[in-house]
Amino acid sequence: MADEVLSQSEIDALLSALSSGEMDANQLKEEEKDKKVKVYDFKRALRFSKDQIRNISRIHDNFARLLSTYFSAQLRTYVDISVASVDQIPYEEFIRSIPAMTILNVYSVAPLDGRIIFEFNPNIAYAMLDRILGGKGTSVNNIENLTEIETTLMSQLFVKALDNLQEAWSSITEIDPILEDFEVNPQFLQLVSPNETVVVVSLDTTIGDSSGMINICIPHVVLEPIIPKLSVHYWMQNESSKERKPEEYELITKNIKKAKMDLSVVLGKSSISVEELMFLSAKDTIILNQSIEQPLVLQVDKVPKFYVQPGKKKNRLAVQILEEIKGGDFNDE
Fold it and tell me: Domain Flagellar motor switch protein FliN-like C-terminal, which positions (predicted)?
């Protein structure tokens, strides 16, 4: 266990007590020798390291940005979503912390086991519903009397947001989230045992003039198979091993070969005055600076690449490549 860090006020109070004689330095040394006992609550077991919690927070920072963009487009109003906190607590504590009547969406996240919960604060949920129905986004907490139409509209909005969750988690694992249940009473949801550790990601949400929280509850059983991928070591290793596989090179090469390019052959150049240009007429001859004894230049996307000679093939004009132009490829000739 790491030693607890004292605040500045506690340090000042300790120094003041020592200087005034209220506390004896020798007594402190004797107390230091005694074994320190720290209370540990086994009901609130910490099963994720701080490092793993930080990476979960990073994933949902990205999810919050994606969700802000999605809801802004769907609701056509100002939406701001950001991660407020990420905590690991017993499932029972999560259920007690949310309102008695709220909007609860339960998702499966195959191929991972278990299910996760999205809890939308009624203020947010009703502001969304009001915007969908053409209102200004006013929040009216009347969650006990949700009609079938209101339930369907909310569910459709939440289902379409699952693509953002899938994209945010793609850096860790591929998931296929599916909405399985829509509930308003948290007491009817018993996903895991009351003492099971869950990660709760709280998103601070503002929609127009309404604000509230979106809470994401992720049980330990869901994250257990991918816990190693949440470590900094995995992320750093993933960043450092960017070498492409042979099949990836083959695919890139195959696609590049299909790319279209513009080829042009320069027959020659000439310069005339504006006056000469104005008086040009049929059958006039313009002398080019290109000798018939010199090869022509073939350009690829306006970049000189080859020396060629003109000719015909099957009654069509053609050129035959003589030599590749070495050096100065990006200087027009």
Answer: 255-325
